[in-house]
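User: Sequence recovery, please. Input:
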């Protein structure tokens, strides 16, 4: 079943996004474009970074000798951290496009920036680079 399907009616074009079991929403084409752009930007970037780190870790582990295994393991751990950040950002992105009912009974859209994810990835990156520097200096 496709994630996004067009409905066939005479009203303005709308699409349905199938989520979990029977739960579904109706979004306009503009909202659908916004959702897809957000997925490409936030989720895709983090997943591509994680895949790149896993690939580099595999190359280091396969091509180089055993003294470089710790560097390969470092990149694998960094890739796992990026993947975890991607999953968290996906969860936040899914919440961003759905309404919630406030305490006063009114529908509100909740938008949350990715500031926390950026801070975590920055800390993870700085830690990985420091560890890489230490591991590289210990090689010689």
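Assistant: Recovered sequence (140 residues):
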């Amino acid at each position: 079943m496709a994630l996004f399907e067009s409905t066939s009616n005479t009203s303005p074009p709308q699409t349905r996004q199938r989520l979990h079991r029977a739960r579904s929403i109706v979004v306009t084409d503009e909202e659908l474009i916004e959702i897809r752009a957000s997925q490409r930007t936030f989720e895709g970037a983090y997943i591509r970074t994680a895949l790149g780190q896993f690939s580099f870790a595999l190359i280091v582990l396969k091509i180089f000798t055993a003294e470089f295994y710790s560097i390969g393991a470092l990149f694998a751990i960094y890739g796992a951290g990026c993947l975890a950040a991607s999953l968290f950002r996906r969860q936040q992105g899914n919440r961003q496009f759905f309404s919630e009912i406030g305490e006063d009974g009114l529908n509100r859209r909740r938008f949350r920036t990715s500031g926390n994810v950026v801070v975590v990835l920055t800390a993870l990156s700085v830690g990985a680079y420091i560890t890489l520097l230490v591991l590289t200096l210990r090689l010689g």
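The longest helix spans residues 29-63.
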